[in-house]
Structure to design on (668 residues):
């Protein structure tokens, strides 16, 4: 999927691209939910439904596959946007041998190192210093890459975050900490886990440029991110961005009882900010796209996702002998029970 | 033991843990529980279900996702006289708190020359659930048992979970209490007795046998019971020794079993290489050498980060067939 040139932004073609990408992510994630219920996907699986504008806006603000990106376990949309074969993403989520990690990682551990996507991590906060390390490496080699380090509002409390912020500021690392503030850390609301819920302020004590931006309007968000990415690339210094979004599904596919932490009323109010519906309205108002066209695109993408799923499902489970592969680069571990 | 009539209730391993947590909260105002999503969200594995509403936010404390920080706070509170119970959402996350646990909690009593105590319990699910992948599937009890100053227990039955958790909460030392997620639904009889404790350092014979001792703990004890059943169909009489407590370790019971059967297989879910089963096996070899008719055999988890694909994951975890294969190695 191509990246927008600045002058093309908000051209009808560009709006259509934003739309297609967000809708593709949504339909892909919904298919994952169905597959999970059918037992085709297991373990912990977390979808990006409701947060699509964040992934798409960031994608168009960076130099895809050149810049580095790293995130936690909500990691399906980033590789899809970067051009990773969606069948390989789906196959990984299903634990099949055609998956990006040959079924060893699963939904929480999707990687496409060749495209600069460094995963795909399950320990909350664990990947954040690693993001700092990616930025350290590009700076060390005098490249002008930036590193996008996505993290949740809940993850923003882990001690390593503050350690990494300090070093990023001390050593001028070109990393953009993108806090995806979707208001919840699993079943814990923001106000129960953060002493000050204005998370953007946390950059200030370290002298890191910081701001809070809306992550639900793909157009304004993309512009904000473009400015932030350009500044970071130019200045080779860290940036701390609090992106306000909302997850529509449960925390993960195993979280069935959202009412333990949010009311139905609150949820439907938040869902009015649906980034896809919002873009549809804009496109209708600007006479860029008709409802019929939107429906046709939806149908096309739904079919596409269906085909991806079918192909992934045709992939075999990994061979038992592969269990010892890749523990080391150059040897095998001791074998057997 | 004198036979005393005690009323019992049939309940799950999970409910046995909930029951003793509630009873100790009620019995001692210094006991509180802290952890992620344990209160308003009712606990990821629902062990603390209903407790937030019943006991309030002073006793059932929802923490941010900051394992090193809140474990340290629990340690300090314990030194200052409280009796914290820390729930790790999964034991894999206790790795983030390992500096606090091993470098601090385990050494407090010693470094202070006995001035300070650290009556702390760290509990939570440890071991494989289902397809949680490499970062969420650790058996750390052997790592903790390696550190002097920590007591480490891994009950396999509802009654032991009930009695050992009470002992853990009342113990004046830091205790690691591991609950394999595969055990939560195991049912058993639990006494209706708010003083019932299972002392640490006592292994338990769950099934008597004459040909081989299957020595294990936590969920592997349930696997050993199933393996013993299957072995009996082949005419092999296996004795199942439930270790229960890794530290302190009851070698007396284990050696007595080996004296009877002359063969031992040590079964553990953790990575086989360098795991706690190696400690038990070498102790049997040292202490029961003359009783053995064959070398002690270990049966452990494969030495790989746990893969996601279900078929590969199942390869990694010792099962009934793996235990039987290990017994057959003894000749
Ligand atoms: C160290 C650690 N502790 C706890 C967990 C369990 N856990 C997984 S996701 C999560 C909530 C994270 O929330 P947030 O950072 O806001 O990200 P979101 O899921 O909202 O994207 C928790 C508690 C974990 N995976 N790792
Ligand atoms: Mg969140």
């Amino acid at each position: 999927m191509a990246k927008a040139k600045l002058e093309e932004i908000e051209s009808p073609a560009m709006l259509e691209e934003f739309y297609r990408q967000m809708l593709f992510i949504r339909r892909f994630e919904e298919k994952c939910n169905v597959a999970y219920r059918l037992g085709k996907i297991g373990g912990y699986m977390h979808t990006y439904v409701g947060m699509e504008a964040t992934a798409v806006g960031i994608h168009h603000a960076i130099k895809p596959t050149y810049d580095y990106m790293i995130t936690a376990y909500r990691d399906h949309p980033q590789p899809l946007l970067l051009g990773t074969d969606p069948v390989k993403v789906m196959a990984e989520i299903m634990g099949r041998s055609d998956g990006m990690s040959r079924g060893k990682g699963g939904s929480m551990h999707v990687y496409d190192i060749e495209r600069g996507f460094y995963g795909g991590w399950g320990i909350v906060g664990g990947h954040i210093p690693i993001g700092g390390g990616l930025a350290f490496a590009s700076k060390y080699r005098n490249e002008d890459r930036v590193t996008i380090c996505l993290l949740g509002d809940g993850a923003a409390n882990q001690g390593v975050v503050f350690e990494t912020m300090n070093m990023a500021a001390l050593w001028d690392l070109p990393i953009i900490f993108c806090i995806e503030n979707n208001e919840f850390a699993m079943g814990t609301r923001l106000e129960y886990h953060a002493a000050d819920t204005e998370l953007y302020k946390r950059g200030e004590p370290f002298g890191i440029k910081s701001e809070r931006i809306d992550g639900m309007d793909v157009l304004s968000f993309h512009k904000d991110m473009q400015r932030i990415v350009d500044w970071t690339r130019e200045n080779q210094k860290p940036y701390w961005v609090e992106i306000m979004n909302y997850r529509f599904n449960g925390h993960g596919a195993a979280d069935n009882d959202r009412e333990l932490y949010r009311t139905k009323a609150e949820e439907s109010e938040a869902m009015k900010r649906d980034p896809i519906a919002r873009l549809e309205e804009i496109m209708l108002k600007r006479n860029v796209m008709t409802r019929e066209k939107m429906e046709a695109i939806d149908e096309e993408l739904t079919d596409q996702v269906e085909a991806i799923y079918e192909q992934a499902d045709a992939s075999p489970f990994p061979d038992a002998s592969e269990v010892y592969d890749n523990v080391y680069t150059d040897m095998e571990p001791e074998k057997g029970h | 033991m004198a036979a005393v009539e005690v009323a019992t209730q049939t309940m799950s391993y999970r409910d046995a843990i909930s029951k003793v947590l509630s009873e100790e909260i009620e019995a001692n105002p210094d006991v509180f529980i802290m952890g992620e999503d344990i209160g308003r969200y009712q606990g990821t594995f629902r062990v603390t279900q209903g407790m937030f509403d019943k006991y309030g936010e002073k006793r059932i404390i929802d923490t941010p996702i900051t394992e090193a920080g809140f474990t340290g706070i629990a340690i300090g509170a314990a030194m200052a006289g409280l009796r914290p119970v820390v729930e790790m959402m999964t034991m894999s996350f206790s790795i983030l708190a390992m500096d606090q646990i091993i470098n601090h909690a385990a050494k407090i009593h010693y470094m202070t020359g006995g001035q300070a105590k650290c009556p702390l319990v760290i509990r939570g699910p440890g071991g494989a659930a289902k397809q949680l992948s490499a970062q969420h599937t650790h058996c750390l009890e052997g790592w903790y048992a390696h550190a002097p100053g920590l007591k480490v227990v891994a009950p396999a039955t509802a009654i032991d979970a009930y009695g050992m958790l009470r002992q853990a909460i009342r113990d004046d030392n830091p205790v690691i209490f591991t609950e394999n997620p595969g055990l939560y639904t195991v049912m058993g009889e639990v006494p209706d007795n708010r003083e019932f404790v299972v002392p640490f350092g006592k292994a338990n014979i769950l099934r008597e046998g004459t040909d081989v001792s299957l020595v294990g703990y936590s969920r592997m004890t349930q696997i050993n019971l199933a393996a013993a059943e299957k072995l009996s169909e082949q005419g092999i009489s296996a004795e199942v020794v439930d270790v229960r407590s890794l530290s302190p370790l009851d070698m007396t019971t284990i050696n007595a079993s080996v004296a009877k059967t002359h063969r031992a297989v040590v079964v553990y879910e953790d990575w086989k290489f360098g795991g706690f089963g190696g400690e038990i096996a070498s102790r049997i070899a040292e202490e029961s050498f003359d009783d053995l008719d064959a070398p002690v055999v270990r049966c452990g988890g494969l030495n790989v980060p746990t893969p996601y694909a279900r078929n590969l994951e199942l390869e990694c975890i010792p099962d009934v067939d793996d235990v039987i294969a290990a017994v057959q190695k003894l000749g």
